[in-house]
């Protein structure tokens, strides 16, 4: 989708890198234990190249930023590889 000009909304964390286990807490729920982190975050992915991803971060003073691609991908995978985009007709 990104290659077609559509931005992608992704779930990541606020550090844009893999988090250590110490950043997680365990909640006991009716469905069982759930691992959560208060570092969960979402951004709009607007571009990428071989080394970086380019995103719009609503929490940043300068909302458009680049992040090293490898660390961003690690954080995205750790948070469950969640993303939403759209396709125009």
UniProtKB/TrEMBL annotation:
The lineage of its organism: Bacteria, Bacillati, Bacillota, Bacilli, Bacillales. Pfam families: Peptidase_C39_2 (PF13529). It comes from the Bacteria. Residues 2-58 form the Peptidase C39-like domain. This is C39 family peptidase. InterPro entries: Peptidase_C39-like.
């Amino acid at each position: 989708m990104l290659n077609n000009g559509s931005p992608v909304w992704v779930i990541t964390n606020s550090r844009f890198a893999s988090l250590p286990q110490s950043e997680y807490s365990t909640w006991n729920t009716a469905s069982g234990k759930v691992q959560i982190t208060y570092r969960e975050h979402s951004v709009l992915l607007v571009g990428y190249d071989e080394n970086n991803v380019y995103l719009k971060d609503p929490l940043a003073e300068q909302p458009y930023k680049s992040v090293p691609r490898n660390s961003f991908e690690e954080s995205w995978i750790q948070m469950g590889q969640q993303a939403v985009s759209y396709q125009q007709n």
